[in-house]
Design brief:
This protein is α+β, with helices and mostly antiparallel strands. About 35% of the residues lie in helices and about 25% in strands. InterPro entries: FAD-bd (IPR002938), FAD/NAD-bd_sf (IPR036188), Flavin-dep_Halogenase_NPB (IPR050816). This is FAD-binding domain-containing protein.
Length: about 450
């Protein structure tokens, strides 16, 4: 197994290793608590002061169990959450059915009020011995002989710190992938457009969208799907899930939000009564994985490593367990001063592939709008399901000039493959096996053999 090592500074034992975590979301804070539990020094850099609500409201039961194992007292979430007693879904038919979680039925969990929960957890993490620095925006990462130099800005100017190991917990929009020679491989264009309706507006409107406090309603539509969550303070969060190219057709996220949700039942009823909606928030929610999730003295965790569709209700649970996992790995290997990047990466990919197959199964349960673009994309076979039709010894065509739709399809199905590079190679070789081998030798290949073969056979029209 290939290993990546860090060197203990002269006169200092591995036990004194310092880890810098970039990102103070649930994932980063979980990693910090787990690392401190192993006696490892931790500096956590968070760009915000938790002044704005973050995406995600549903913390499932097993996520609460994971927080408990980290030593987080129940009061942290109890003060900022209400028990989620019901999730109702209109998925696959107009009739609603009740389920505790679309992917998982292990208890009800809670619905969080954010950013109250985030602030409370951040205070607890800081009190647990983590060097927690808010309002610190990382500007550059530089590899050094014995670790990393991290430069970051604060309200008072630029600062710098050194660390032996970096954990990237900065989320699905991580800006540090280039520092690690990695790229984000995106499998769809899903975005979330959200509106938080205050308790006062809910009372004035005298309507709750059919969603009492402590419940969630999920409804599919031609555009995608939406959900409403009833929070502890009486507020309602309404979120539309659709693709970015669909949003663009409406000009602005606000127009898309209003016009698409007008086609729903519960959300339309609520929005018709709530006046003066002038602003919504939008964030990317696509399924993606980092081409390289670990390397020489660094590892990505949570959404920075790979991110799931919110349909799974797994986002926050994955964030917590991902933070715990990297701490476990670092603790196990610090005595030998080695980090098993290949094995860590293989484990992450295995998690992603399982999720990816599960995601396809659940989207295929909804067939009412199978001719709509949003659903056609999600109903088609993904690369894990597509059969290999090309024999390794088969001759390949050298004069292929694919149209734009074919190139786009390959980029959507196997984003890890560089189509332009592959086309050039195919003009120089005769056999499929040669094309795969040369492609792997001449690129920083993050694609599997199957992904490359699939790209070749799609280009050949097979």
């Amino acid at each position: 197994m290939e290993i990546h090592s860090w060197k203990a500074k002269e006169g200092i034992y591995p036990e004194s290793m310092k880890v810098c975590i970039i990102g103070g979301g649930l994932c980063g804070m979980s990693a910090a608590l787990a690392l401190r539990g192993y006696g490892i020094e931790v500096v956590l850099l968070e760009a915000s002061n938790y002044e704005r609500p973050r995406a995600g409201e549903h913390l499932i039961a097993k996520a609460l169990d994971a927080l408990t194992r980290l030593g987080v007292p129940a009061r942290i979430w109890q003060a900022n959450a209400v028990d989620c007693y019901e999730v109702q879904c209109a998925w696959g038919s107009e009739a609603y059915y009740t389920k505790n979680s679309i992917f998982n039925a292990q208890g009800s969990g809670v619905l969080l009020t954010r950013p109250g929960f985030d602030n409370a957890l951040a205070r607890f993490v800081a009190e647990s011995g983590v060097d927690f620095r808010r309002l610190c925006r990382v500007s550059s990462l530089e590899k050094e002989a014995d670790g990393w130099s991290i430069k970051y800005s604060t309200q008072t100017g630029m600062n710098e710190l050194s660390a032996d190991f970096i954990v990237d917990a900065s989320g699905r929009n991580t800006k540090f992938s280039s520092s690690f020679d990695a790229t984000r491989l995106k499998y769809d264009k899903l975005v979330a457009i959200s509106l938080s309706i205050s308790p006062e507006k809910i009372k004035h409107a005298k309507v709750d969208g059919g969603v009492p406090i402590g419940s969630i309603k999920v409804e599919a539509g031609a555009y995608g799907w939406c959900y409403i969550a009833g929070l502890k303070d009486g507020a309602r969060v309404v979120t539309l899930m659709t693709d970015s190219h669909i949003v663009k057709k409406y000009g602005t996220p606000l127009k898309a939000f209003k016009q698409l949700l007008a086609l729903t039942r519960n959300a339309a009823q609520l929005l018709n009564k709530v006046q003066d909606i002038k602003q919504v928030s939008i964030c990317s929610s696509q399924t993606q994985i980092l081409s390289c999730v670990a390397g020489d003295n660094w590892a990505a965790i949570g959404d920075a490593a790979w991110s799931a569709d919110p349909l799974s209700s797994q986002g926050m649970y994955k964030a917590i367990t991902s933070g715990i996992n990297v701490a476990d790995v670092l603790s196990e290997c610090r005595q030998e001063q080695i980090f098993p990047a290949p094995q860590y990466s293989a484990d992450i990919r295995a998690q992603f592939y399982k999720y990816f197959l599960d995601r396809s199964k659940y989207y295929r349960q909804e067939r009412r709008w199978e001719n709509e673009n949003f659903w056609k994309i999600r109903h088609r076979k993904n690369w894990l399901e597509l059969p290999v039709k090309l024999h390794p010894a088969e001759k390949i065509k050298a004069d292929i000039e694919p149209d734009e739709s074919t190139v786009q399809y390959i980029r959507e199905i196997v984003p890890a493959v560089n189509v332009s590079v592959l086309l050039n190679i195919m003009t120089e070789v005769e056999r499929a096996a040669e094309a795969v081998e040369i492609y792997k030798k001449n690129t920083d290949c993050f694609a599997t053999d199957k992904e490359i073969v699939l790209a070749v056979q799609i280009l050949m029209g097979l």
